[in-house]
């Protein structure tokens, strides 16, 4: 298992970084409703604000020594919920093909199994690594661009080119990070078996 670079520095719940993460979580159902109702401009605004708050919550937590256990749960939860709601909305509107949605959901299912195995062996869920963050950032760029691509003209065409490039990289990195988690879990389980 990878060594945690930063330690929990506070048990407080109401910190600025945690409030930003909570606001991101509250924005998820609003964002999904906006996509389904085809209010793309507003949906993009909510997604952009989510991206800014995602950057700020981690930066402020480190700068102000407010890294918390709750923050470590909220941040990846908000990332995953935005990805899942975007997948659902874009697939429903037939902007995203079903095969890509299923590929990303299969990776999430695989990670849930790994977390379950870790818990059975008394380990916490794996920390988000650089590769996982890079995958999330690629997908967070891909989804708004693909949403913009739903139209006619030069801007939607350009958005489609860059959107599919980010989607391809994001999906690849998402699976790569997932496979690395599987390798980490396998090593831990194997080490536990030899220790017994």
From TrEMBL:
<dbReference type="InterPro" id="IPR043130">
    <property type="entry name" value="CDP-OH_PTrfase_TM_dom"/>
</dbReference>
<keyword id="KW-0594">Phospholipid biosynthesis</keyword>
<keyword id="KW-1208">Phospholipid metabolism</keyword>
<feature type="transmembrane region" description="Helical">
    <location>
        <begin position="12"/>
        <end position="36"/>
    </location>
</feature>
<keyword id="KW-1133">Transmembrane helix</keyword>
<dbReference type="GO" id="GO:0016020">
    <property type="term" value="C:membrane"/>
</dbReference>
<dbReference type="InterPro" id="IPR004570">
    <property type="entry name" value="Phosphatidylglycerol_P_synth"/>
</dbReference>
<comment type="similarity">
    <text>Belongs to the CDP-alcohol phosphatidyltransferase class-I family.</text>
</comment>
<feature type="transmembrane region" description="Helical">
    <location>
        <begin position="130"/>
        <end position="149"/>
    </location>
</feature>
<dbReference type="InterPro" id="IPR048254">
    <property type="entry name" value="CDP_ALCOHOL_P_TRANSF_CS"/>
</dbReference>
<dbReference type="InterPro" id="IPR050324">
    <property type="entry name" value="CDP-alcohol_PTase-I"/>
</dbReference>
<keyword id="KW-0808">Transferase</keyword>
<keyword id="KW-0443">Lipid metabolism</keyword>
<feature type="transmembrane region" description="Helical">
    <location>
        <begin position="161"/>
        <end position="183"/>
    </location>
</feature>
<keyword id="KW-0812">Transmembrane</keyword>
<keyword id="KW-0444">Lipid biosynthesis</keyword>
<dbReference type="GO" id="GO:0046474">
    <property type="term" value="P:glycerophospholipid biosynthetic process"/>
</dbReference>
<keyword id="KW-0472">Membrane</keyword>
<protein>
    <submittedName>
        <fullName>CDP-diacylglycerol--glycerol-3-phosphate 3-phosphatidyltransferase</fullName>
    </submittedName>
</protein>
<feature type="transmembrane region" description="Helical">
    <location>
        <begin position="98"/>
        <end position="118"/>
    </location>
</feature>
<dbReference type="GO" id="GO:0008444">
    <property type="term" value="F:CDP-diacylglycerol-glycerol-3-phosphate 3-phosphatidyltransferase activity"/>
</dbReference>
<dbReference type="Pfam" id="PF01066">
    <property type="entry name" value="CDP-OH_P_transf"/>
</dbReference>
<dbReference type="InterPro" id="IPR000462">
    <property type="entry name" value="CDP-OH_P_trans"/>
</dbReference>
């Amino acid at each position: 298992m990878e060594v945690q670079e930063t330690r929990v520095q506070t048990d407080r719940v109401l910190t600025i970084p945690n409030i930003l993460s909570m606001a991101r979580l509250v924005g998820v159902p609003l964002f999904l409703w906006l996509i389904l109702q085809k209010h793309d401009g507003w949906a993009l605004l909510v997604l952009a604000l989510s991206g800014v708050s995602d950057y700020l919550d981690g930066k402020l937590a480190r700068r102000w020594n407010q890294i918390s256990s709750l923050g470590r749960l909220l941040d990846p939860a908000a990332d995953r919920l935005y990805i899942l709601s975007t997948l659902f909305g874009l697939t429903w509107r037939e902007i995203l093909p079903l095969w890509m949605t299923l590929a990303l959901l299969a990776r999430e299912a695989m990670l849930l199994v790994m977390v379950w195995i870790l818990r059975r062996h008394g380990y916490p869920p794996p920390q988000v690594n650089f590769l996982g963050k890079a995958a999330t950032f690629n997908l967070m760029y891909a989804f708004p661009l693909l949403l913009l691509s739903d139209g006619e003209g030069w801007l939607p065409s350009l958005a489609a080119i860059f959107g599919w490039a980010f989607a391809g990289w994001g999906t690849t990195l998402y699976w790569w990070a997932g496979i690395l988690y599987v390798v980490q879990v396998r090593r831990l389980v194997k080490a536990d078996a030899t220790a017994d």
